[in-house]
Amino acid sequence: MSTATGPTVPPPASRPPESGNTAWVTGLVLFAAVVMMVNGVLEIFQGIMAIADDDVFVSTPRYVFRLDLTSWGWIHLVLGVLVLLTGLGLLRASAWARYAGIFFASLSMLGSFLSLPYYPLWSLVVLTLDVFVIWALCVYRADPLT
Questions:
Q1: How many whole angstroms separate alpha carbon 22 and alpha carbon 24?
Q2: How far apart are CA 114 and CA 42, in angstroms?
Q3: I need a surface site. Which of 3, 25, 51, 99 has the fewest CB within 10 A?
Q4: Is 88 exposed, middle or buried (0-12, 13-18, 19+ CB in 10 A)?
Q5: CB 125 within 8 A of CB 38
Q6: Measured between alpha carbons, how far is 1 from 76 in angstroms, rounded to an integer?
């Protein structure tokens, strides 16, 4: 009695553990980093304009949140530098940058809301981009260390 053996199937190759992140999620973090860097540079310029010349901005006399434009410019300048540095940290895949990015995008949303009467279209664009940045940073999961 001979036993015939069929073709042998090689054992399944071991695959690296799945990280849970698809290519589009990783791409969203890159998108968030670039948007944050661009937003940071624009906030820096906006802060410099407000500090250097108050006549650049439109004033709304009957707005509830009346702010001194020079102090508002310093806030934009400091926030812009922090947002730019956070965007650079996201490009380096730093964990701190994800949490800081969510925090600074939230602050940017608040600032855009406060400037709605002055620049409504620009404020809505920045609000929308900040929502996408927060979403992109929240859906990303760090790869587990093996």
A1: 5
A2: 17
A3: 3
A4: middle
A5: no
A6: 87
Confidence of residue 8 (pLDDT cuts 50, 70, 90): low
Hey, what's the torsion of the CAs at 32, 38, 44, 98, to 10 degrees?
Answer: 20
| Amino acid letter, residue 146 | T
Question: What predicted TM-score, i.e. pTM, was given to this entire model?
Answer: 0.73
Per residue in 32-87, pLDDT (tens digit) is 999 999 999 998 998 898 888 766 666 666 666 666 778 888 888 999 999 999 99
SS3 at position 123 = helix
Residue 101, token pair as written in the block: 């990015």
> What are the start-end ranges of the H helices in 53-117?
69-91, 95-114
- Give the side-chain half-sphere CA count within 13 A for 108: 39
